[in-house]
Amino acid sequence: xxxxxxxxxxxxxxxxxxxxxxxxxxxxxRVQDVDLxxxxxxxxRLDARGALFLGxxx
Length: 58
Fold this sequence. Notes:
- By secondary structure, the protein is an alpha/beta fold.
- It has one domain (7-54).
- The chain has helices at residues 12-20, 40-45; strands at residues 7-9, 29-32, 52-54.
- Strands 1-2-3 form a 3-stranded parallel beta sheet.
- The N and C termini lie far apart (32 Å).
């Protein structure tokens, strides 16, 4: 059985840092209380399967 890592994203700066580092998948990400309304283009490029969004705005 494969264990999936969990990544906590609690700010736009953390999201931007991971995308700038080359992230293409959000599998295992827990995005909490982050306003993503200005990141539509970024979100469309990422594979969101396996991500969990808690609070915030999309």
